[in-house]
Amino acid sequence: MNDIWHFLREFESKELVKRFIKKKFDYSLNSSKAFEITSAFTQGREYFTSYVKADISVKPLLQYYGIVALSRGLILILNKSARENNITPSHGLKIKNWNDIVKFGKLEDVIMKSSKGTFTELINVTKNKSYFRAGCSGINWHVQYDVPSEDIEFNLKEISLCFPDLNQSVKSWLNVEVPSRALNKLKHPNEHQLELEIQGKYDVNLLSQIFPSSIFQGLEISEAENNCIVRFNENQMPNLSQKWVSAFQVIGDPYVTPPFQNGIFLNDISKMYSASFVFGTISRYYPSTWSNINKGIANDGVLPFAINLMDFLQDKYPKIVMDFIKSPYEFENK
Predict the structure, then answer these.
(1) Half-sphere exposure of residue 77, counting CA atoms within 13 Å on the CB side?
(2) In 10 A of CB 153, how many CB atoms?
(3) pLDDT at residue 248, rounded to an integer
(4) 304: region left, alpha or beta (phi > 0 left; psi from -120 to 50 alpha)
(5) Which residues, given as ranges, of the chain have pLDDT below 70?
């Protein structure tokens, strides 16, 4: 278990949870809801612990159940009116096209369709906001997107491109150059325009994926000293994702990544939830497919990515939950 659990364990104590809610939100929490919160965090920790010891056949499922438990605990904390009996007992996602996946074997084409449930409730309580460690080991920036409707669709490939720490695994799996670049600066040169400085020279194929002209109006891209300056009309923030580990290990950076084809934008915590849902669902409901993958029988090209993703989520999901528990931050009030 990583060190973040030393802090999350405080949310397994009714007394400490009630004290936290009173101090942070200035209202008194009754004991029954405090117990619901502690139960969710205890269950989440136990699932994450079980994941470490489990066989590969059930690892994705155990981790996903842990992610659901932590997500429900976060929802109970951030939503004053949320209770166990009124949080929708649904994952909030389903795989839409499994028959096609079985036929063609391309897991990257798995389409997720959302509905009312933990996924959509998680987006709502976090306000579809991503917190960033921008050239820093601590949170110092955030981006907030519009909350999408409950009925949206997106695929695993789109989600996979949103984890810069896993770019090498994605490249090996999909045999593509992963379209993502580190963001150096973001500013407003005037009231109608957004300007980004991103690392790397001009690459028309890569940049057209990150900044499709159908979404980013008035797009202008120029190259300057091994960086690119990207300008467009300020009607949409780019799709930004946190890279947690840089060359300095503890210092993170925001990366620009391709937006989803249907124009929706999701925050980092919901991207993590979605990725875990796919592999958890496959291992639970389609165990023969998962066995074929992890035993090297069929479609095992995705296996290194899946394992590295699970290792990534094992470390980062508890941290991102804690990020929201500690929010809002001082810079948000400026």
Answers:
(1) 31
(2) 14
(3) 60
(4) alpha
(5) 1-2, 247-250, 334
Residue 2: the pLDDT is 54
Structure tokens at 275: 């990725």
Given the DSSP bridges, would you call strands 220-224 and 239-243 parallel, antiparallel or unpaired?
unpaired
The residue type of 117 is: G
Contacts of 247-253 with C-beta under 8 Å, sequence gap 24+, read: 250/137, 251/133, 251/135, 251/136, 251/137, 252/132, 252/133, 252/134, 252/135, 252/136, 252/137, 253/133, 253/134, 253/135, 253/164, 253/182, 253/183
Strand partners, 241: 255
pLDDT at residue number 234: 80
Bridge partner residues of 194 (DSSP) = 232
Cis upstream peptide for 238 (omega within 30°): no
pLDDT, residue 334, reads 64
Please state, in angstroms and as integers, the Cα–Cα distance from residue 232 to each residue in 62, 191, 235, following that order: 43, 12, 8
How many C-beta atoms lie closer than 10 Å to residue 136's C-beta? 13
Which value, in Å, is the radius of gyration of the alpha carbons in the chain?
Answer: 20
